[in-house]
Write a structure and sequence with these properties.
Layout lengths: L12 H11 L7 H11 L18 E7 L5 E8 L14 E8 L1 H4 L4 H6 L7 E4 L2 E4 L8 H19 L3 E5 L13 H22 L6 E5 L1 H8 L14 H19 L4 E2 L2 H16 L4 H8 L14 H27 L4 H5 L2
Parallel strand pairs: 1-6, 3-8, 6-7
Antiparallel strand pairs: 1-2, 2-3, 4-5
Helix pairs in contact: 1-2, 5-6, 7-11, 8-9, 8-11, 9-10
């Protein structure tokens, strides 16, 4: 297998960085380091079964999760052609579900929560002949969130039947700060609980899928960089500009109908996404009027929520598919594919 990739030794460090970004691995480092990690990564498929003895499930159903508590977003992408592990044509992904939820609210509304979580009585306070029911304080303790994690995972596995689950990796620190924010710890705790539930289901034979942690920086580097590895979003705050660039990229694809197909509720949300995006853009009044008479009216704009979370989960899933396609192309064509990857 190494002989098939011997041409990597003649690549420049910049070319190796292009290949690394194209398949979703670290693109920084010396030439020996980049060559070594590519030799290790390229022969391995990500869409295949967990064990060689397992049967590959087709179609491949990918659940991409953008982590959060108040703003957790996920989408389900279905690939029609994945049976042959060496095939370079994976087909156009179909988005069957795409939404954003608040865990503390949505989980308690699910069917599993109604069965498993008893309703806690709240104190009634009688004032002026009317009963006023006080809302219970939102809880963030491990016991409560272990229930939320179980409810979320069981609901998604039952409804979407994913063969692969992509989970956005969380960091303890952001923007280079030395402090660890309390909210960051809560999301990290919830992330770990989701992994634990999925691992338990897998080990006990309740679910045969595979979990893949995804570093958000690799997704951003893949979509929002040019072939030299420089950001394409322009000057200003790196985080804010990257977020805006990703939102606009998804909006562009939705307008063009490119890269994927939307079905069912995902199609409605896609139109609502465009409505909200165009409302925020003062220069798109003409487009907004044109879209206002469409089926986007079927989805309330407020239900769309934060566009960056929806964009992140979709771009994460599409990037992972593209990484696998690029890996297969590299293994099939070798150095011939280098120019095509550089044009990405």
């Amino acid at each position: 297998m190494a002989s098939r990739l011997s041409w990597l030794g003649s690549c420049t460090n910049a070319q190796l960085g292009v290949i690394a970004r194209a398949v979703g691995v670290n693109s920084s480092g010396t030439k020996p380091i980049l060559t070594s990690q590519l030799l290790d990564h390229l022969p391995k498929g990500t869409l295949g079964p967990k064990k060689p003895s397992d049967t590959l499930q087709e179609p491949c159903r990918i659940l991409s999760i953008d982590m959060g508590i108040r703003n957790l977003a996920y989408c389900c992408l279905v690939l029609p052609h994945t049976a042959h592990q060496n095939a370079t044509n994976l087909g156009s992904p179909v988005i069957q579900d795409w939404t954003r939820i608040a865990i503390s609210e949505d989980s308690t509304k699910s069917k599993q929560a109604e069965d498993l979580v008893p309703r806690k009585a709240t104190k009634d306070e009688k004032r002026s002949g009317n009963f006023k029911i006080s809302n219970p304080k939102e809880a963030f303790d491990p016991a409560t969130y272990s229930q939320h994690a179980y409810n979320l995972v069981t609901t998604l596995l039952k409804d979407l039947r994913p063969t692969h689950v992509l989970i956005e990796r969380q960091r303890f620190r952001s923007m280079g700060g030395s402090a660890v924010q309390e909210w960051t710890l809560r999301v990290n705790m919830f992330e770990a609980m989701i992994y634990a539930v999925l691992k338990t289901f897998s080990e006990r034979g309740f679910w045969k899928g595979i979990v893949h942690p995804i570093a958000p920086s690799k997704v951003s580097n893949f979509w929002i960089t040019n072939k030299q590895g420089a950001r394409k979003e322009g000057p200003g705050s790196k985080s804010a500009k990257t977020k805006t660039a990703k939102i606009e990229l998804v909006a562009k694809w939705l307008e063009e109908g490119a890269h994927f197909e939307l079905k069912g509720g995902a199609a409605q949300l896609g139109k609502a996404y465009l409505r909200k995006k165009m409302k925020k853009d003062s220069k798109s009044s003409v487009k907004q009027k044109k879209l206002s008479g469409s089926q986007a009216l079927g989805v309330a704009q407020d239900s769309v929520g934060k566009l960056d979370d929806l964009a992140d989960c979709l771009l994460q899933g599409l990037a992972w598919i593209k990484w696998e396609k690029n890996r297969r192309l590299i293994m099939a064509k070798g150095a011939e594919i280098l120019d095509e990857l550089e044009e990405h």
